[in-house]
Amino acid sequence: MFYSNNKIKNSIDDYNFLYKRMRIPVKSIYRNQPAVNPIIKYIMSIKGVKSAKANIITGKVLILFDEDIVSDIYIERQINIYMKKSKISHDSNIIKINNINEETSLPISFENIKPPLHNSMQVPWHTMDKNEIKTVFNTDLKYGLTGKMASKKIKELGLNVLSKKKRTSLISKILKSLNDFSVKLLLGVSAFSFILGQIPDAIAILSIAFVETILGTIQQHKAEKSIYSLKNILVHRATVLRNKRKVCIDAKYLVPGDIILVQSGDKVPADARIIECNDLKTTEASLTGESTPVIKSTDLCSKYTELGSRCNMLFTGTNIICGTGKAIVVATAMNTEIGKIAAMLQNIKPQATPLQTKMQNFTTKLTKICLASCALIGFGALLAGKSLTQVLTMSVSFSIGALPESLPAIVTVAMALGVQRMSKENVIVRKLNSLETLGSTNIICCDKTGTLTMNEMTVRKIYTDKCLYNITGSGYSPEGNISLIEGKPSKESSLERLLAVGVICSNATLVKRGDKWMAEGDPTEGALITAAHKLNLDENMLRNLNPRIKEIPFDSTRRFMTVITEGSKGKIAFCKGALDRVIQKCKTVYEDGAERLLTSTDKKRLMSIGDKMGEKALRILGFAYKKINHKSAENIDDNFVFLGITGMEDPPKEGVKDCIKKCHRAGIKVVMITGDYKNTAAAIGRELGLLTDGLVMSGNELDDISKEELSRKIRKVQIFARTSPEQKHRIVKAFKRFGYVVAMAGDGVNDASAIKEANIGIAMGNNGSDIAKDAAAITLVDDDFCTIVKAIEEGRTVNNNIKNSMKYLLAGNLGEIIAIAAASAVGGVAPLISMQILWTNLISESILGSALTTEPSGEDVMKSAPLRRDEPLISKKLGLQIARRGIGIGLTTFAIFEGSLLLGASLSKARTLAFSNLICSQLLNLYDCRRNKTTLPNKYINIGTASSMAMLLGIIYLPFINPYFGTQALTLLDWAAITGMCMIGRI
Ligand code: ATP
Predict the structure, then answer these.
(1) Helices 907-929 & 972-986, crossing angle to 10 degrees?
(2) Which end of the chain is more exposed for a tag (fewer CB within 10 A), N or C?
């Protein structure tokens, strides 16, 4: 999407005070619109020129330029040089006024000029004050745009999407299929036969080439379609202020002037100028290649600040790794910085997966061997006195029959079908090679919250001021009671204080959709607000009485969040977070209406209360506050007053327990790597059957052990708790080092680097952070752990289907080679003529071979151990199976041919028998190669078999086809012989 030139004109004009302007006469454009585009394009290419507008009525160009970069004299000189070089004669280019129509005589419209891609970004937003930008876009920094204004802008500027790469046209697909080696060979032979006057042969071979091309095109089209259609399933969402409300919309509807809100884990949805931020950091590797985090602020930058150093700007596609921010969108779609490089990225060809490369290499080797043998056989036949045409036709058809050239295409089709089946199971594959790896995955590492559990928090227990409370109710509904279960009554003010801190220290809001209450924002914070409502605390009043002046947002490394407010009682800091972290910051505790010293015994006691809550699978949070003394220079994080503890329930997801069992049966280890408390993680682990006889190790313990000890222990660990993002990454790396093929599933920012490190990164598509999704190779649309197991099942199925197709095709090819070679060895008469070989090749390779890739996965797939990753393309077992079947097919075809000749049959009948035997043996082979014979019938295989049989019968019994294939009608006895031979060939 481009901004139309009108818009560029407007925005540049609005900023023309920043640039110098000059109006230069260019005679060649006077009343000559066709001359405008090249000259404007040229002027725009001069460094420092910001815009150029032509007026064909006056014959002048208005140029805005940055005088710090370029001078007017230089621009004028460059234009003169250009005019001379392009030999534009002014006079000759002038179109006489009476020759032009009304339209062309209008002042030049910007619509007609292709805009420089990123003109809008040439406005130095980073140097401008937020109020100036606000005026440009006519927006409101507090309330954002109205829906009406946004729709108008969308109509003018288009959607916020990078222009999509055009899909391959039908013509290029056909040309690609025509470029196929076997098609080229067939076309060559057909042309040769035509020259030699063998018209029926030429036509027959040409028709086979035609069918091969059509099939190739259909295969390509199906593969592309299934992969392409998945790209749009995942919606990138953005939080924006519209109509004075905070709403979450599809990022493609963002327009310049929108006020967006970003937080840790988000992917920036458009280029934007920051107007507010708290501890905001981004990684801009996608744009600048630099992976170190960039600290963001609202400070103005100088005009020459490089892209990577524009601290007050957010750029599309970069990731927020920490903090929160509010920004005004200044560019969308192709006008963003990433838009500039999007075109380049689109031209990068997708890389072949390791399996595709292996298969390509294997096929190339086999092709070379086949062609060499063909040349030898052909040479022998020439010496034996056969004509050049006969030899050529025979060798080409023989080589086509022997070559496994369709194997690489079958890998692609199998993968494309796998991707399609996975999408139906809610798995979006972003990297094709992950399909291969899925089949070999032998360990799933996953975070807890949101992956194994529902990430729907409810506060169940509160401990404060020596009292323990129980809380009833479900989800985020404010209905429920808080009742005292331990301690003295009359401590309600402490309880109120604690829950008030929970509200003040939260960014989430509760909304009612239909009958259901939901938390918008962090579920942990949603649960705290719900608990506060159960005590009838007024959320809005609390926030209004304690206006925030600063926030240090929660992050998984620090594990706590601080908010500083300034109200009538001065500055107060509130903090909530992991219990151990909060206790560390506290010097005193609030009890019996006063603050007293927090002793080490108190700390132990509080930790053990937390431990007990953890044992009940509750997530533990500590709360504290402090008054900020203006005069003292104390650290903001020290000397807090401890208030109490909350324990939140986060129920395990339905079905996860069974899926973990299924993984164990399939030889897949499941390990939880969580940032949560050891006891909480262990209790959930036990509940899910994940923690059996293994160890629970904390992040600190992990840091303390040596590499050797880790290598000894790691196989026994089932839960890693209290881990930081770095430790999660280290664990995945360690598992990989010890030979595991690791799938890492997670949803949070804290999981992203482990997801990236894993052999297969898996992100939750629904509630997962954009960072996790970006790092992952596959995304689960339904956020369900069980979908990972389905994905592995599919990965295994794709691998099996590819192996079975190989088994089927190579055994068939070997059978043909053996039959032809054996017959030549004994009598020199070929058992099959070219057309028969070509037909067998077309039917068995192109049609039935692909049908095997459509096999669905079955129950048994998850009952065997994962595939070995280092397994060769053709294992010993597979090689033996291919050899046995190939020999069976080859020898029976040879036997039926020679046997019938011996019994006095004509050559044409013997060949018909051999041809029918070959096709029927391959059909039996097809069913034997079905991995999953026990499950439902496969309609593609059944239809393929039925049509193949029908065509064979047509070739045999339709007299007008007989001459092309050298066939004749067979008797029932012949069919009995074929059946017998096929059964023998199967043994
Ligand atoms: P997982 O890694 O399995 O998703 P997690 O989500 O529990 O686990 P973190 O998000 O790193 O891991 O949370 C670690 C701890 O930080 C929690 O146990 C809790 O005590 C605390 N915590 C979580 N969310 C917040 C929050 N919004 N504010 C303050 N503290 C929080």
Answers:
(1) 40
(2) C
Please indicate whether residue 674, judged by its CB atom, sits closer than 6 Å to ligand 1: yes
pLDDT tens, residue by residue, 691-721 = 998 999 998 898 888 888 888 888 899 999 9
Measured CA to CA, the distance from residue 660 to residue 788 in angstroms comes to: 10
Of all protein residues, whose CA lies closest to atom 24 belonging to ligand 1?
524
**In the structure encoding, which two tokens stand for residue 449, read together?**
């919250």
Q: CA 824, CA 95: separation in Å to the nearest integer? A: 80
Using the mean position of ligand 1's atoms as its centre, give its distance from the Cα of residue 560 in Å. Answer: 8
577 lines ligand 1 (CB under 6 A): yes
Q: Where in 502-593 does DSSP place strands (E)? A: 509-513, 516-520, 548-552, 560-567, 570-577, 586-591
How are strands ordered across the β-sheet holding 778-780? 427-429, 778-780, 760-764, 742-746, 443-446, 669-673, 717-721, 695-698
The amino acid sitting at 813 is N
**How far is CA 521 from its chain centroid?**
24
Q: Is 524 in the pocket of ligand 1 (CB under 6 A)?
A: yes
| Cβ–Cβ < 8 Å for 713, 689 | no
Q: Which residue(s) pair with 590 in the sheet?
A: 595
Q: How confident is the model at residue 39 (pLDDT cuts 50, 70, 90)?
A: confident
pLDDT at 348: 46
CA dihedral 764, 768, 770, 774 (to 10 degrees): -20
Each residue's pLDDT tens digit, 138-153: 899 989 999 889 888 8
How many Å lie between the centroid of ligand 1 and the Cα of residue 522?
Answer: 10
Nearest to residue 843, comparing CAs of 412, 416, 413, 208? 208
C-beta of residue 509 within 8 angstroms of C-beta of residue 495: no
Query: Active-site residue among 271, 447, 465, 974?
Result: 447
Assigned token pair, 323:
């903090």
pTM above 0.90, yes or no: no
Query: Which atom from ligand 1 is nearest to the alpha carbon of 681?
Result: 3
Active site residue 447: yes
> Does 94 have pLDDT greater than 60?
no
User: Which secondary structure element, helix H or strand E, spans residue 659, and what is its range?
Assistant: helix 656-665
